[in-house]
Amino acid sequence: MVYYTVCSRKNYTAMTTHLIDQFNRNIDYIRLSVTDRCDFRCIYCMSEDMHFMPRKDLLTLEELQRLAEIFIQLGVKKIRITGGEPLVRKDIDQLFLNLGKNRDLKELTLTTNASQLKKKGQMLIDAGVKRINISLDSLDSKVFKKMTRTGHLDTILENIYFAIELGFKKIKLNVVLMRGINDHEIYNLVDFAIKNALDVSFIEEMPLGDVTHERKETFVSNDDLLKNLKNHYNLIKTSISTGGPANYWQIQNSQTHVGLISPHSHNFCESCNRVRISCKGELFLCLGQENKIELLPLLRRHLNDDKPIINSILDALKTKPKSHEFEIHKKSPAVIRFMSHTGG
Ligand code: SAM
Ligand code: SF4
Question: Which residues line ligand 1 at a C-beta cut-off of 6 Å?
């Protein structure tokens, strides 16, 4: 069910701005991917030899902004800019600065590998970005290199310290644990977060895209991880909710929360409040399913009228699946597209 009434773009009045899907979930959060390109090639996210989309197939900056504004008018309160690596897109500053001015948007945030934070950090602060997620899978430069294929840990750490100094309200580290690769670094990574007053989330690897390793061999269950964390730290369960997949624990006597994002060991779809838009304007209703609609042709066909785009979004929402169907033990990926395509 979708409660929404709308007029034409020029005289646009939302009567009820809620996107409610058929399972009564209120969609107020979008993840907007602004590029599929990246300066890293993380082994769980990309293949070594990635082919990126031609630029003409990507949403332009104006299209990204228009789409974001349509969703805001439809009741979306939070937008996470993602990718690929969002900060490698050349013209990205203007999108942040423009969206940052929109008063109906409660939170503008991003997920980044931190490689460009020295260059872009101040711009993000100026745009009103308060919380950022930074992917950091290892504190060992050899492991970091192995996992990112092209990344240099020293530069990334320098950039993380720079971002801390800039004064973001909260920085959260994202870690994908891989058995036999970085799963011996759990406590180092949590201690690093505690020392620097950061949060840290552990994400179970999802079977997206055709990568070179066997995912079932590298899989680390967050249930096992939680047992280890409880043996090592005093964890206090919190009721913090982002309406999403993470459960959070606070580490006693610290400012650090540990989040466990567990698409396998705990299906999180019941409370799903989000949809994703790929950098080529595909609206994905679920990260782990193929349901999508193409918004780019509509944006280009209807330059001065948002109504057809809104109608498509409303129709698409009716098809939002109940849940993903990730199965780590299967040989082929659940979804062929890479995470960097959909936007993590
Ligand atoms: N480049 C940015 C970054 O790495 O933070 C943003 C895009 S990246 C696709 C977003 C998040 O998705 C990262 O935290 C990354 O660790 C995560 N990710 C990528 N592929 C994944 C996979 N197969 N399973 C679980 N998480 C994945
Ligand atoms: Fe790039 Fe992020 Fe994917 Fe790593 S996880 S390859 S940094 S998009």
Answer: 38, 44-45, 82-83, 85, 111-113, 135, 174, 176, 203, 205-206, 208, 339-340, 344
Is the residue at 307 inside a domain?
yes
Task: Give me the chain's average pLDDT, please.
Answer: 88
Report the relative pairing of strands 78-82 and 170-176 from DSSP bridges: unpaired
Residue bearing the CA closest to ligand 2, atom 4: 42
Q: How many domains does the chain have?
A: 1
Tell me how far apart the terminal alpha carbons of the chain are, to the nearest angstrom: 27
Say how many Å lie between the CA of residue 240 and the centre of ligand 2.
Answer: 26
Taking the CA of 215 as reference, the closest ligand is 1
pLDDT in tens, 41-75: 999 999 888 889 999 999 999 999 999 999 999 99
pLDDT winner (highest mean) among 19-23, 49-53, 143-147: 143-147
| Cα of 218 from ligand 2 centre, angstroms | 18
CATH classification of the domain holding 169: 3.20.20.70
Is 216 within the bounds of a domain? yes
Crossing angle of helices 153-166 and 117-126, in 10° steps, is 20
The total number of residues written for the chain in this structure: 344
pLDDT at residue number 240: 74
Tell which atom from ligand 2 comes closest to the C-alpha of 45: 3
Please indicate, yes or no, if residue 3 is contained in any of the structural domains.
no
Is 20 inside any structural domain? yes
Question: How confident is the model over 29-39, as pLDDT tens digits?
Answer: 999 999 999 99
CB-based burial of residue 94 (10 Å sphere; 0-12 exposed, 13-18 middle, 19+ buried)?
A: middle
- Range of the structural domain that residue 32 is part of: 9-342
Q: In the predicted model, is pLDDT for residue 321 greater than 80? A: no
